[in-house]
Amino acid sequence: MKLNLLYLPNETGEKLLECVKKEWKKVANSEVELKGSKYFLIEINDANNGYERTINTPQAIKVCSDEEAISGILAINRIAYGNSDDDSIIRRYNVLVCDNNIISTQVKYPAKNKEQIKYIKETENNKVAQLAKRVFQLLGLDIGMINIALTAKRRWRIIQVDPTPNIRDKDLEQLIRKIKSLYNSEDYLINNEIKMGADPEFMLFNTRNNKMLAASDYFPRDGQVGCDNIRIPNRQQRPVAEIRPKPDESPLKLAENIRQSLIYASRLAPYQNVKWVAGSQPAGAYSIGGHIHFSRIQANAWFLIALDNYLTIPVFLIEQAATASKRRKKYGYLGDYRNKDHGGFEYRTPGSWLVSKDISTAVLCLAKIVASNYPRLDQNNLNNVEAQKAFYTGDQQYFTKIFPKIWNDIEKTAMFSEYAEQLEILPQMIQQGMHWDEKADLRKAWSISTSNRKNNLNEKSNEKPSRPVSGISNSGQDSTLTGRINRANASSSSISAGSVNLNRSIRTQNQRNINNSRSNNTRPGGIITPQQIRRAHSVR
């Protein structure tokens, strides 16, 4: 690809230009003006590929030159910006970031009569590193220096963001290596197939009174079907279940693996009077997600921005806006990811798309296209105040106007034709104003049968059972897609729920009765309150 780089003509800018000329044969340089300042426009040409990408786009540099824009974006994400008169600074960190990697971290702190300076490894302060990376993602920056302060009240504040800093020669060498990696990113994808996995979450409800049930009463903690780490304090009950299918290079095979895991889960909890639901926040203050895993690749800046723009925005447009915005007060923020032991990472921004087989398959196919083509997917519609405010408040109308431009880029990819049929449901739902239904039993939408057995929930209720729904709510007028989806949901599966060993069932139920007798203030079918929940927080 042709790679462009914008940098001020300062000392590091001059050295950077010389280093680039030594590494590449075809390099051009010119000057452009942004926000009243002149910048080097360094162009690394590629005669074999007409595609073009820019490191530190003009839009990102303009945002960093506007104090009001930086302050607005960080405020929406609950990140403090600027100095504070009522909170003194006890330590400063100057963090050099490139492509979502920490190049160096300098620490300044008072000691006796003078300021001490030292450099630390990223692992010595992961909180600073994660905060620096997140701010760069929100602002759309690829390279730069961020100044982070720790105050006397033990609060973190962003003091300054510089997209073209003067840096040490040692750091410049690492910077050049990262630029070479960006330049070769498309070649890497051509020679390496991205593998995907997932662990979408869901919740269980009593169909008679719509009260939430603890997933741990039905599923083990580990395995292909298990429970999330959320639990009731001082007890082992866990309210959120999740599917952990076998990963695969094919999104279609991964979707089938999810179905097989759901069938297995149905054998563990085959009850008709227990409803399974997904979405963003199907119950009270309990949020769930549709986490997607990527291996054979790391969470670089371009990839995360592409996931936010080309995967999350389409999914955002078919979510239930009200519950999605509530979920994102704590979880599912832009660029939300977590590195995993398999060498890849888990993307955590979308809600749980497990609501139906068609939607799940479409989301996984779209994720595969983005993962395999992200260097060519260069739109960033999110690094401004208006867009981020719309995202966190659930303003779907704002992104509906942007969607055609996003989808046009997806359709241009070479891989689109391979999954065009599976992807069709997403633009149709968006154009018709349709959204997934968080009250529907997802087993029906996956055509997974249940037995006639009913679980003894020990719960009497005068409430009427919830009416059956299709898994998708329709606010539009076109019935073609709705009819297709309803027919798919109505079709019964030839796969049975399987038999359960009677003796094992009796032993399991007896053990549950013992556990319930030991706990005098909870029982199956009871509501788990938000005050009972405990969740580990990552840097926000």
Descriptive notes:
The chain is an alpha+beta fold and 540 residues long. 36% of the residues lie in helices and 21% in strands. The chain contains 18 helices and 20 strands. It has helices spanning 11-23, 58-64, 67-76, 126-139, 169-183, 185-191, 251-268, 301-316, 321-327, 357-373, 385-393, 396-400, 403-412, 416-423, 425-431, 442-445, 480-490, 502-518, and strands spanning 2-7, 27-34, 37-44, 52-55, 80-81, 89-98, 101-111, 114-120, 143-151, 156-162, 195-206, 212-213, 225-227, 240-243, 274-277, 290-295, 337-339, 345-347, 434-436, 472-474. The strands form four sheets. Strands 11, 12, 13, 14, 15, 16, 17 and 18 form an eight-stranded antiparallel β-sheet that branches. Helix 3 (67-76) runs parallel beside helix 11 (385-393), helix 8 packs across helix 13 (403-412) and helix 10 (357-373) runs antiparallel to helix 14. It is globular, with a radius of gyration of 26 Å.
Give the assembly state of these chains: single chain
Distance between the termini: 34 Å
Which structural category do the helix and sheet elements fall into?
Answer: alpha+beta
Quote the beta fraction: 15-25%
Largest sheet: 8 strands, antiparallel
**Helix percentage range:** 25-40%
Radius of gyration: 26 Å
**Number of DSSP strand runs:** 20
Which parts are unreliable, with pLDDT below 50 for 5 consecutive residues or more? Answer: 459-470, 475-540
Overall, the morphology is globular
What do the pLDDT scores average to?
86
Number of helices: 18
Summarize the structure.
By secondary structure, this protein is an alpha+beta fold.
